[in-house]
Amino acid sequence: MLLAALLLLAACEHLPESDQPAAPPGPVQISPPGIDAAEPVTAAAPDGSFYVAWVNHDAKQADVMLAQFDGDGKMRGSPVRVNRQPGVVTAWRGDQPGLAVAPDASVYVVWTARVESAGAHGTDLYLSVSNDRGQSFASEVKVNDDKAPAAHGMHSLAVANDGRIYVGWLDERNVSKPQPSTKAEGHHMESNRDLFLAYSTDGGRTFSANRKVATEACPCCKTSLAVSPDGTLYAGWRQVLPGNFRHIAVVSSKDGGASFSSPVIVSDDRWVLQGCPVSGPSLSVDNAGSLKVLWYAAGEGDAPGLYVSESRDNARSFSPRQLISQEEVRGTPALTAGNNAIALWQTSGTAETKMRELGNAGSELSVASNAELPAGVISNNRLFVAYIAKEKEQRSVWLVTANQAMPSAPAPAASVPSNSYHGVGIVKGLDPKVPAIEIKHEDIVGLMPAMQMLFPVTEKAMLDGLAVNDSIDFTVENNDGEMKITAIKKK
Predict the structure, then answer these.
(1) What pTM does this model have?
(2) Which of 59, 182, 245, 425 has its CA 20 to 30 A from that of 267?
């Protein structure tokens, strides 16, 4: 039974075992040893190969790296830096780079860089293009067309069969700064953002004027784009509705991103949350044009779980949601492209990556333990999964094939992942009644980018002796997406 399920999940049931190419011997580390590496993404190429991109972190500097793999999962050459200027990239667990390969084999990578001007800071969005199968990248092109520093992130990327490139993102150019709240429940607290989109018809050399598609988008939840074989574009995000219901919404465009349908809520999950869950939708379109949406929800009266819904009428309506896995999920789940879509997700707390083929009666299977934020791609009729492994505080990116999945997959040599992170910031508010502290903090490596946020503290006494504008070091603990300050040290 297990072998049959594995072969089905890998989409290999039509191949005799003798005809299947030999898989790598087990999970393989693909990021360089000794480098803090995270945020993997994957994309298939027309020639049967595939690519994995990830981010190498070094203190406040970071670079996007790209590697190509053949259909057997063997790396071709060495990883290449995508960004031309070293160290300018910014990324975190909720906002990894975007990666796509065009029908002509051009490789596209979208990423963000930090910008500062006159005391204000934000991020700009860039697209890098390789026309030699990932061996080199031309100078990047800025996608957002506003001038003043503002946040542009939670981005997504898709390429149509005609080569048109779409980039979607959450934008704060027209959004007021976040207002303090004592009800964030340990989740991210920021003002809601607008969903923007731009497209390129010349291979990424220039982009259209930025278009606002929606407002009141959940600010720390990833967006998703998908294009059907007939060219219909779909965009998905988590919408904040009156009453702080946070539901998945989808729009479509039949004219190449020039206009969009009205947003449609995929499912009334009744999930009320005063903060951001850092979990967006994943979209995938099969060869018949059917759209699948995968997401996590924890609504009223329902156990937390991973759900899928389908639309066959260009996102005008959606089927009742189907429960894929009843458990808490960390981050945005992943969904492979094309027919026989496969869902991938990380369990909360245990850092185990699991998978399940949508539309199949089989049960979920474990891919690996100590495996965070997975990304999957089908190549050479097999599923390859890239993920993050942790050893103490250092992360690395690994690759495993689906037919090595098992109920308890062997993990790379690593300790149990830590849920504690170090931060540096300035006190902006104190609330002894909650108790909570509002901090304008720098990047918390491995957890979140620089922002201003209200954190609960474990003990009221931790606030004693602190005042607004004090500089502090602090430790934040992340348990199933709920964050609390466990230690504060005044500088």
Answers:
(1) 0.81
(2) 182
